[in-house]
Amino acid sequence: MPRSAATAEASRARPEWTRARRIVVKIGSALLAERETGALKRDWLASLVEDVAELVRGGREVVLVSSGSIALGRHKLGLPKGPLELEQSQAAAAVGQISLAHAYQELAAQSGLTVAQILLTLGDTEQRQRYLNARHTIETLLELKAIPVVNENDTVATAEIKYGDNDRLSARVAGMVSADCLVLLSDVDGLYTAPPAEDANARHIPLVTEITDEIEAMAGDAGTELSKGGMKTKIEAGRIATAAGTHMVITTGKVLHPLRAISEGSKVTWFLAKQDPVTAKKRWISGQLEPRGTVYVDAGADKALAAGKSLLVAGVKRVDGAFERGDAVVIRTLEGRELGRGLSEYARADAERILGRKSSEIADILGFEGGPELIHRNDMALTRK
Fold first, then answer.
1. Orientation angle between helical segments 86-110 and 69-77, nearest 10 degrees
2. Distance between CA atoms of 190 and 200, rounded to whole angstroms?
């Protein structure tokens, strides 16, 4: 497409896409693996990676949530079609994950990108200490201009600790990293009033501002045998993402360059969040988490917090409670006035050892390299400006 035509087409994209700085993209097994043979759709994946490279060159940050390890692994192991036993699924994932990671690495290198593999289980986004660990890893990779490729750790996960599908996993990851936009690449180009394969009169829904009972009723059940996700799980992902302040878009992945197509105004369904990720996160911290302790800060820290700074250990004079890393704590002045709440970067036992100390002393005291912040400003909700 000529540059002038591409520019004109791009103007049709919604502002939720053009303004998004941090984007999470979910890729399903049915898009990555051939249905009959289970072989990798290499040309399609190459086009997607080229799209990611274009976004990165434009100043965006991209996280990929990729299925495909079981689908690729079962093909290499010669496992039969149909449902697999748990042990077979885990074995297929162990084999397929190597092939999938290698494909991403090779294709990314051709576009001048570095990729990193991250394997998660349900507990990594539900237990706050592991949540912080996973988030810090992803954000550090993004700062270093690497592309995190996230997948559920199917080699060890069982039914009790699984997300069950990567739609919901991608929504959790989007909330974890405060993404502006979540893209669900699907086998259809959005939400319809009824499953379009079953109802010729089904109408496309381009915009959803609220997930109502009527919207949920439009969702069908699971998709192909390669994919456990259907429109129902995508609606659930939309509920998770928008609650975290992340806009979500469902679009077809059955074309080459599916992300470029969004920029060019392709048919999609947008699910709009009512607040931005920062506001949603602060509301979650301030109103939905039970504080496990209290930290008392000096006047200098009080002033720094009012200026939008993080809470450094140097400004904390006392701690109370039994909190672990990732737990919510109340921030108070030495006189007892509440300043806000936040997620602690240290457990109480470690925090007490480094209170009032300089950041250069932390590693020698604790025996490991920790940051200077007791509470990062991104993990804090103040009760006043």
1. 110
2. 15
Q: How many CB atoms lie within 10 A of CB 143?
A: 9
- Beta carbons of 183 and 20 less than 8 angstroms apart: no
pLDDT per position as a tens digit, 171-189: 999 999 999 999 999 988 9
Residue 286 burial by CB count (10 A; 0-12/13-18/19+): exposed, middle or buried? middle
Task: Tell me which residue of 247, 246, 253, 269 sits closest to 51, measured CA to CA.
Answer: 253
Q: For the segment 286-339, what is each residue's pLDDT rounded down to a tens digit?
A: 877 889 999 999 999 999 999 999 999 999 999 999 999 989 999 999 999 999
HSE-up (13 A, CA, CB side) for residue 92: 24
Listing DSSP states for 353-383 in one string gives: HHTT--GGGHHHHHSS---SEEE-GGGEEES
Q: Which of 277, 246, 283 is nearest to 383 (CA)?
A: 283
Q: In this structure, which amino acid lies at residue 356?
A: G
Residues 6+ apart with CB under 8 A from 257: 47, 48, 50, 51
Taking only Cα atoms into account, the Rg of the chain, rounded to an integer number of angstroms, comes to: 23
Q: What predicted TM-score, i.e. pTM, was given to this entire model?
A: 0.83
The per-residue pLDDT for range 22-54, each reduced to its tens digit, is 999 999 888 998 887 888 999 999 999 999 999
Q: Which two tokens stand for residue 124?
A: 């990594």
Measured between alpha carbons, how far is 313 from 358 in angstroms, rounded to an integer? 8
